[in-house]
Amino acid sequence: MRRIIVLGFLVLGCFLLSSSAEEGKIVKIYEGKHWVWFAREDQFEKYKGEIEEFYAYADRAFEYLSRAWGLKPPLEKYFLLVWPLTGGGFATGDIGEIRSVRGEVSPGIGVSYDAFVNGVNGIKGYWGYVLITHEMVNLFTGQLVSGGWPVDWWANHRSPFPLMTAVEIEYALIPEVAIHHSKQLSDPLCQMFWQLKDEFGWYLFRRAFKMAKEDGIDWEHIGENPSKLRTNYVCAYLQMSAPENLTPYLKDVVPDYDEKMVEDIIKARERWRSLPEDAPYREELQGRFLEGRYIP
Fold first, then answer.
1. What φ, ψ does residue 258 adopt, rounded to 5°?
2. Helices (H), strands (E): how many in the chain?
3. Torsion angle, CA of 47/50/54/56, rounded to 10 degrees?
């Protein structure tokens, strides 16, 4: 499912255009080290110079995040659509506009064409840098674990984790953008994530992502989104990855955070993982756990 964000002047809706849409034909415009770019042919011809300025940055950002997290998504190359509509960006497991050209599943991100052209804060293409970086973070978390991260405190409706991570990448690669983008980090959730990163480094998140992936976690199978159940599952994986109690960071900031529930989820995980691979009931206990029906 496609996720859409709203940033600054960007006002969004969710649309699907085919490669033969009346607005114009979608074509491949560039293949870099980590991104295969597509755009509407007429828009690319008009804004070719502006769009080309971002090819190298997109590859550099991909490599920086891979090094920082110590993790790489399963594919070496993803797809980037210069979205024919104005006003935003998205990350998805399959970009329909590109799939209609390639005939294959095409995971990646989309960035509105005007983000590459318009200037903000004295920086031409400011939103192009912001959206590529932000949506790449969402793509990575979806590819490394699954989609369905809590919309009320992680991504989507509020995007504090992708925002914090994007600003960190921008400070390393294009600080003139980060200086302005960081002004959006005043939200308590953004501050919480930044504190966690400063205190524990990327190791905290790297370990949480790896543990969740190894367990077979798919957030979409655990409660509604948002829900107390899904929130505390995510918090449990963060807690299991931390060297100390995270309650002082999470309490009163993360909606529906429940320290006791987190403890029960951790105990339930330990219960099935402690059993031998061929033990009776291990598979059943694991299956219940992965569906949010854990036994404390």
1. -140, 105
2. 12, 8
3. 110
Mean pLDDT confidence for 10-32? 63
Query: Is the separation of the CB atoms in 39 and 100 below 8 Å?
Result: no
- Whether residues 59 and 132 fall in one domain: yes
Residues 14 and 93 in one domain: yes
Which structural domain range is residue 216 located in? 194-290
Mark whether 117 and 25 lie in a shared domain.
Answer: yes
First to last CA, the chain: 32
Q: Do residues 28 and 142 share a domain?
A: yes
Q: Per residue in 77-129, pLDDT tens?
A: 999 999 999 989 999 999 999 999 999 999 999 999 999 999 999 999 999 99
Domains: count for the chain: 2
Q: Give the global pTM.
A: 0.92
CA distances from 124 to 53, 114, 130, 155, 185 (A): 10, 11, 12, 26, 22
Q: Are residues 128 and 246 in the same domain?
A: no
Is there a domain that residue 155 lies in?
no
Residues 143, 72 share a domain:
yes
**Predicted confidence band of residue 9 (pLDDT cuts 50, 70, 90):** very low
Tens digit of pLDDT for each residue in 238-288? 999 999 999 999 999 999 999 999 999 999 999 999 999 999 899 999 999
Task: Confirm if 143 and 172 have CB atoms less than 8 A apart.
Answer: no
**Is 19 a residue whose pLDDT tops 70?**
no
Residue 166 CA from chain centroid, whole number: 10
Say which residues have a Cβ less than 8 Å from residue 10's Cβ, sequence separation at least 6: 87, 88, 89, 112, 115, 127, 131
Percent of the chain with pLDDT over 90: 90
Alpha carbons 216 and 72: distance in angstroms, whole number: 17
